[in-house]
TrEMBL record:
The lineage of its organism: Bacteria, Pseudomonadati, Pseudomonadota, Gammaproteobacteria, Lysobacterales. SMART domains: AAA. The keyword Electron transport does not apply. This is ABC transporter ATP-binding protein. PROSITE patterns: ABC_TRANSPORTER_1, ABC_TRANSPORTER_2. It comes from Lysobacter brunescens. GO terms for molecular function: ATP binding. It comes from the Bacteria.
């Protein structure tokens, strides 16, 4: 067979490591997932964002085979969720860890490493998760932040191709959080795919290549970090001005106006009209600075838009 006649296979980089498609899940009358679909690729961090109860943990649970979907498709490394062969190639750090309190950290690490065909060395795990001095301690006697680091070590100790991190840095101090971010970046640079849920939008901004925003069990945005930000038209305008912010707040196109000392900050839908009026009304205005809204603003606007649509549908 000549090379030309071979069917063209998708390149490994474009085949998703994991995928949900049209997934529905209801708990009695409550719809937790309402047709959720997204995928995670090699060498990228996908951040799944959403308010409490939006369906983030349920999406992960479906991918891990912990919860059965009522409808739709779920696949991990080309296998059904929960498949043992897939389990040996993924790492998982969930909110509820279920780790025996009496076990020594070193024992936990040895045991978890033994499940995997190509575990990382203990020394690497200790360095990557920041476990120095913790190996002989009992898990239950560690602080919350130390326990999170142990959970992270257990998630990465098998050199997984795909890593599920459900709010990994909750309870970590700034230094430990930065260390975990650095390790995640290192893993991703080596080709690992990461599904990250977080309530810290600066964490998603710092780590994620792509973002999926869930709102009440539906995907309301899915795209590259910059694309999701760009979907939001809002701008933040800052300047030194003596204008009355209560009055500025009533101008057309202005969403919010606040004062911090001599500086005012205006959040506007379309910056141009508002900037023109600011300059016209205050000839002494200086230090004008206009920025695209950050992920936090984008997130709020995206979920607020769904609120509006839902209200409209209900009306
Ligand atoms: N076992 C369960 N039984 C009944 N309802 C459930 C169960 N698990 C989740 N739910 C409900 O499903 C919805 C989605 O929950 P899920 O835990 O996926 O949200 P989340 O986005 O992870 O929220 P959080 O940010 O609070 O962790 C919520 O309304 C939740 O109350």
């Amino acid at each position: 067979m000549s090379p030309q006649s071979l069917p063209s296979l998708p390149s490994p980089a474009t085949v998703p490591l994991a995928r949900l498609h049209g997934v529905r899940k209801a708990y009695r009358t409550l719809t937790a997932l309402d047709g959720v679909g997204f995928s995670i690729r090699r060498g990228e961090v996908l951040s799944v964002l959403g308010a409490n109860g939006a369906g983030k943990s349920t999406s992960i649970a479906v991918l891990l085979g912990l919860v059965a979907a009522d409808a739709g498709e779920a696949e991990v490394l080309g296998l059904p969720p929960g498949d043992i062969a897939a389990r040996r190639r993924i790492g998982v750090m969930l909110q509820s860890a279920g780790i025996p309190e009496n076990a020594l950290v070193g024992e936990l690490l040895d045991l978890t490493r033994s499940y995997y065909p190509r575990p990382r060395s203990v020394a690497d795990c200790v360095a990557m998760a920041g476990l120095d001095g913790l190996m002989d301690r009992r898990y239950g006697q560690l602080s919350g932040g130390q326990q999170r680091r142990v959970q992270f070590a257990l998630a990465i100790c098998g050199s997984p191709e795909l890593l599920f991190l459900d709010e990994p840095t909750t309870g970590l101090d700034i230094d430990a959080r930065q260390r975990m971010w650095a390790t995640i970046r290192e893993l991703v640079a080596g080709g690992t795919g990461v599904l990250l849920t977080t309530h810290y939008l600066e964490e998603a901004e710092a780590l994620a290549d792509r973002v999926v925003v869930l709102d009440r069990g539906r995907v309301v945005a899915d795209g590259a970090m910059d694309e999701v930000r760009a979907r939001v038209s809002q701008r933040r305008i800052r300047c030194l001005s003596a204008l009355d912010v209560a009055r500025v707040g009533t101008w057309p196109g202005v969403r919010a106006a606040s004062r911090d000392g001599a500086r005012i900050e205006v959040v506007a839908d379309a910056a141009e009209d508002v900037v023109r009026r600011l300059l016209a009304e205050d000839a002494a205005l200086t230090e004008l600075d206009i920025r695209r809204a950050g992920l936090a603003d984008a997130f709020l606007e995206l979920t607020r838009d769904t609120d509006r649509n839902t209200d409209r549908e209900a009306a």
